[in-house]
Every structure is written in structure tokens, then in C-alpha cells.
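Any chance you could type out a protein's amino acid sequence plus the matching C-alpha cells because I've never seen that pairing?

——
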Amino acid sequence: MDPTLQQLLDGCKASDRAAQKALYYRYFNTFVGIAVRYVNTPADAEEVLNNAFLRIFKHISKYRGKGSFEGWMKRIVVNCSLTYISRPHYTTQSRIIPLKDYSLADETALQASSVHIGSNGIEEKYNQDFCYSC
């Protein structure tokens, strides 16, 4: 094991806040990447990750040095992610899907059509040249 990681591990076992902060920042990018694969949004992934680190710090004395410490923590992050998505309030429809940036080559086509959102919230496309009184 890396001597720096061993010092962090010993500090975390002694509830040293500076060691906990250093461990958090050392593995944040790795573990948020894992959590975001399971949950919908980056905000949800951060919540999962914070819960996972609370669990890691609470149970760090149970790590006996067998196997990879990073692997032990990854298992906790995955388990926290699975627990989070199994909650009743969690919906898969809250996923934010980024839209591609589309641009029209012809500005007149953009001006000729527009989008109208009716009172029922449904988008309706219509052409401004269309005569509704005909």
C-alpha cells in the first residue's frame, strides 16, 4: 500500500478531519464517475457519494487490509448507489438528457415556423403563414 494512503487510512481511523478531507478529495472524481452511472443526475451522484463517504468513515475500522482499500470503498459506493435508486421517491424520468446543438442554415426557415405551448403543456408546431380563419 502507498505510504501516503496508509497515513490517510490511519488518520481516518483516528477520526482526523484533515485525513478524511484528503481521502475524500483524493477519490472524489473516481467515485463520482461510478455513482453517476447508476443515478440520474450529477446532483444525485454527489448525494450518493456523500452518503458513501459517511459510511466509509463510520466503518473504516472494519477494513482489515485484505485486498484493495480502493476496491473496498468502490463496493460501498456501488451499494449506496443501488440503495439510492431503490428508494420509492427515485424516478428514472427525472434524467436530464443534454440536447445536441442544432443550427439551421436558413434563417428564413427559423422565422417561418415557431413553437406554441398550449394551456395543456403540449408543444404544437405551427406555421405563421397558416390561416386559422379559412
